[in-house]
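ugh ok so i messed up the first submission bc i forgot one of the chains. this is the corrected input, ALL of the components this time, i swear. 1130 residues overall. if the numbers dont match what u have on ur side tell me asap before i send this to the collaborators (the ones from the other lab, u know who)
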Amino acid sequence: MKKFLLVFLMLIIVLSFVSGRVIAQEPTLRIAKPGDVGSLDPAYCVNIKNEFTIMDCLYNGLVKYKPGSWEVIPDLAEKWEISKDGKEITFWLRKGIQFHHGYGEMTAEDVKFSFERIIDPQNASQEDVSWAALDHVEVIDKYTAKLVLKEPSARLFTSTLPMNAGFIVSKKAVEDIGKEKFNFYPIGTGPYEFVHWIPNQETMLTVFKDYWGEAPKIKNLKFIPMSEALTTEMALEIGEIDVAVISEESIHRFQENSDISLYLKPDLATFWIFFTVNKPPLDNIKVRQALRYAIDVDEIIKAAYAGIPDQAYTLIPPGILGYWKDAPRRKIDIEKAKKLLAEAGYPDGLTLTFASKQELMGDIIGEVIQSQLKKIGVDLEIIILEVGAYADAARKGDTYNMLYDEYPCTTDPGYATMWFVCGQAWNLFHWCNEEYDKLWHQGEVTLDLEKRAGIYQKMEKIMDEDAIAVWVIHGVRPVCMQKYVDPGSLFPNGRLAPWLMSIEK
Amino acid sequence: MLRYFVKRLVLLIPTLLGALFLTFSLIYLLPGDPASTMLGPRATPELIEALQVRLGLDKPVWVSFGKYAWGIITRGDFGESVWSYQPVSSLLLQALPYTIILAASSMIIAIIIGMVLGILASAHEGSVLDSIITGFSLIATSIPSFVAACFLLLFFAIFLKLFPVMGAGEKGNILSQLHHLILPSLSLAISWIGYIAYLLRSTMLEVFGSDYIVTAKSFGIPMRCIAYKYALKNAIKPVVALVGLGLGSLFGGAVFVEVIFNRPGLGKTIADAVFARNIPVVQGGILLASFLYVLSNLVADLSYAYFDPRIQYE
Amino acid sequence: MVDNKKGNKHFLQILNSFKKKKHQQLKNIVRIFSIILKDRKGILGVTIIGIILCCAIFSPWIAPCDPYEQEIANRFAAPSLKHLLGTDNLGRDILSRIIYGARIAMTVSIGGVSVAVVVGVLLGTIAGYNAGRVIDNGILWIVDVIRAFPQIILILVLVAVLGPSTLNMIMVLALTAMPRYTRVARAETLSIKEEEYIFAAKSLGAKNKRIILKHIIPNILPPIIILAGVDMAVMIMIEAGLSFLGLGVRPPTASWGIILRYGYRYIRLSPWMIIWSSIAIAMAMLGYSLFAESLRIALNPKDSIEKQAGV
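and heres the new structure output, hopefully the right one now
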C-alpha cells in the first residue's frame, strides 16, 4: 500500500518534470520589470522604468525617437511647420489611424485633448511641466492641429513630444471609460493593444491588427513585475523570462553564459540622495553640508552596485547638453562635518529618516549611509516603501528627511531639470529657488546651444551651492535576453523597443 | 452529529462578526491619514475626499461598519482595490484556488511521506533506520517553510535546473501547473512531514505496547499485519487531529512560500496588498483567510467527533 | 452553621495539605529537571537553549567584532581567522551578528511568551472561575475572534499596519498567542475549582483574587509551561520570517531573519550568510522543541498519546 503511494508520487514528479521542460510554443515575449505598473495613462506615469516601455507599445506621439538613437522623426504627424517666432507649430496628421478596441479614428481633436488635459490644473498631471510652454491647441481641421505656445520651447521636440507627455490618447475613450479607470484600460494607437492587467502578476499586450505602421513580429507581450534581483536572474537562467535587466553584481556571470546575450548600456538617468529642505533640521544648509561631507559615495557604489557605475557629481549626465564637468568633487571630511553640525546647533547629533524603494537597492544604501552618518553622530532611521506609498510620502514632503531615488533623463537638459521648479509634483527636495526657476524658463526658450548649456550649468551650480543633494551615479543598464531573442534596436540607454524585437526558435 | 454541526455553526456567528469588526477597524490603526496614504501619487484633494467617502471614513464608526458588514454579508462586496478599482472579491477569488491547491498538496505530500516514515521507524524500533528517521523528523520540524523554500529553490531550480522558479504554470496546462507546484508544496510540507512522522512513530510504539497487540503477536500474527490492520487504525486519530490543526497554520506558511516563489495565491495577494497599503484588499484577504481557517477547523473538529463521538457531548 | 471546633480542625488539615503541596511543588520541579536531563533530547534541548541565552545575554563580551561595523572593501569574505563565519554583504562579521541576533530572538520570544502567558492565564482563570457568567462569555468571545485568524497572517498585517519595531512585534506575537493560554487556563481552572481545598478556602472567606493567585494558578502551570516552550520556538520562527520579508526589526539591528534575507538575495556571491542564519534559526527552534517535548514527557509520563499531541 505504502509502496504504491510512493510510486504514484514519484510518477507525478517525473511526469511533471518531463512535461514542464517543453517550451511554450506561443509567441509571447516575457519581459521582467522591477515593479508593477502604477498607471498606464501617459499623463499620470508614476514610474518611468516600470511603465514607459509598455506605454511606448500602446501609444504613439506626433514624433518619436528613431530606433537606436535619440534622433527625432515623424510618427503620427506626417510633417510640421514652425512659425517664425517659434510660438506656433502646425502638425499635419496621418489619415486613417485607428485607436485600439474600436475607438475610432485619430484626429486633431484627440491631439488637442491629449495635450490640453495635461496642463489643466484640475487634472493634476505630473507632466504639467513638460507642457509649461503650451497655451492651447487649435484644431484647424480633422487632420491638422496647431500648437500655440506661450513662448518658444527648446525641448518640445527633444523630450516633450517623443516622451509620454506627448502620447496621443483617445478622447472618446477617456470620456467614456472615465479618467480613473483609464489608468488601467489604456487606449492608444500603438502597435500593441491592451489585453489585461493582473495586479502584481502580469500586464499583457497583444498585437493590434489595425496598426497603421509596420506590424511587430512578436504576437504577445507579457510584462511581469519582479522586484527581487535574484528571482529575476534565476528565471532568466532557467528560461522562464526572456528579457530582464540584471543587477550589476551579476554582469560577469551573464557575460559568460552562452544562452544569454548581455547588452551593457550606460543608463540615462541620475540616482541621488534627496534632502527635503522644507522642514527642520534639513532646512539648515549647514546640516546639509555636514551630511555631504560624511556620506561616502564610493562606498555606496561598491556596496550596492559592485563598484561598476561611475560616480555622479551633478544632475545632468555626461554627454548631455549642459553637463557640468567642473562640478566640485568633495572629499569625505568627518571633522568638518562634525563642526558644521555643531555650528548648526546640533553638537550632540540628531536623528533623521531615510526612505527609498527596495528595487533601487534603497535598503542596502540606507544601511551604508546609516553607518557612515553614525560617525558624525547622526542616527538614521530607514524606511523602505512600495511604489505608491513611497510616491505619496515623498511628495508630501513632511514625512522623511532623506530620500534615495532615480530620475530618468532625456537628451534634453530641460527635462532633467524641470522637476525641481517651485511646487512641481516631483520636486522631492521641496526646494524653491527663484533664480533656478528663472534660469529654467530661460533655458526653455533659448535656442542657441552654447548659451543653453551655460544656463543649465548655472542651475546645477545653484543646486550644488544650496547643498540639496548628494549625487550618486548615473547608472548602467545591463539588459539581458535569451539568445533566441533578437533585440531589434535598443535605445542608447538600453530601453527596449519590443515592436522591433523578434524570437527565433 | 447533525445537531453538533448546527450547534457549532451557530456558535460561529458571533465569532465571525467579531472578526469582521476587528478587520474593519484596521483602517483606523494606520498611522496618518489613511486615504492619502493609500492613494499614492494621484492624490488630489478631490480624490482623497472621494476615497474617504468610499471607505466610509467621513461617517461615524458604527455607520460605516454597518455598511461594510452589510455589503459583505448580502452581496459579498468587499470593496474595491485602491489602485486598480477592481472589486476585491474578484481579486481574491482569482487567487484563492492556487492557495487551496498548494495547501492541499502540501498536506497530501506530508501525510504520505510522514506516514511512511513514521511506520517504518516504529516497525524497526531501535535500529539505525529508526534513529535516522527520528533525527530527521525532529530537525524537519525546526525548518521553517521559508528556509526550506530558499534552499529548495536554490538547489533544485538553480543548481540542478529541474524545476521552475516562479509562477503557477500556464493556465489550463495541468502538467505545467503540477511542475510549478512541487517545490512550493515540498517547502510547506517539510515541517509537517517531521511532525507527522514523529507523532505517528510515538503513537504506533505506544499502541504496540498495549494488551491486544501483545496478544495478537503471541498468536503468531506477523508484525506487518499487526502494524497495518490493528495499530494504524488507532494511531491515526491524533494524526487526524494534527492535520486539522495544521490546515490553519498552512495558510501562514503559504504566505512565505507564495512570496518566495512569486506564486499567485491568497497569501501573496495579502502580502502584496500589505506592502502597497492597499487596505481594502488586505481586509478582504484576511477576512477570507479567517473564514476558511474557521471552516477548516470546524471540519477537522467534526471529523474528530466522527472518530470519537464522546466529543459531541462535552 | 459550621461548628467552630470542627471547622478549625478541618482548616488545619487543609492548611497542612496546602503546605505539603507547596513543598511538593519545589520537589517536583527538581525531579522534573532531573528527568529531562537524563533524556537525550532533554540534554540537547537544554544545552542549545543555554548557548543561545548566553549569546543573548553576554553578546558584547562573546562577539569577536562589532556587529555594525561595515567594511565594504571586504564584503562576502569566506570564513577566516579574523571572521570565523565570514562577512556579509556590507563587510560585517557574520559570527558577531549571529550572536547579537540571539538577542532579538530571545527578546521577542521571551517577551512575547511572557506577555501572552500573563495575560492569557489571568483571563483564562477569571473566565473559568466565573464560568457561565457574562465575563466568561465575553472573554471567550474575544479569544475566539483572535483565534479565528491564521496566526501568521494576522501578525503580518498588524505589524505592517502598526509599523515594524521590536515592541510592536512582541505585542502582536503576544496577542495572537494569548488565546491558547486563555483556553488551557480556563479548562484547567474549571476542573480544579471543584476541588475541596478551594471550597474550604472560600468558606473561610478568602477573596477570589487570592484564591486565583495562590491556589489555582500554581496548579495549572504544567501544561502552560509546555505550551510556552513550543510557542517560543514558533515566535522565533515568525520573527525570522517577518524579518525575511522585510517587516521585522529595523536595520541595522542584526536579526537572524534579516541575515537570511540578504543571504538569500546574495546567494550567488556568497553562501555563508544563508547557511549560518538558517542553522541558527533551526537550532533555536530545535532546542525549544526538544525541551518542550522532554518536559512534556517528564510531566505526564502516563498520559495518553492523544493528550500529549496537544489535542
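quick check: The mean pLDDT of chain B is 78. that seems consistent at least. Chain B touches chain A through 51 residues (CB under 8 Å).
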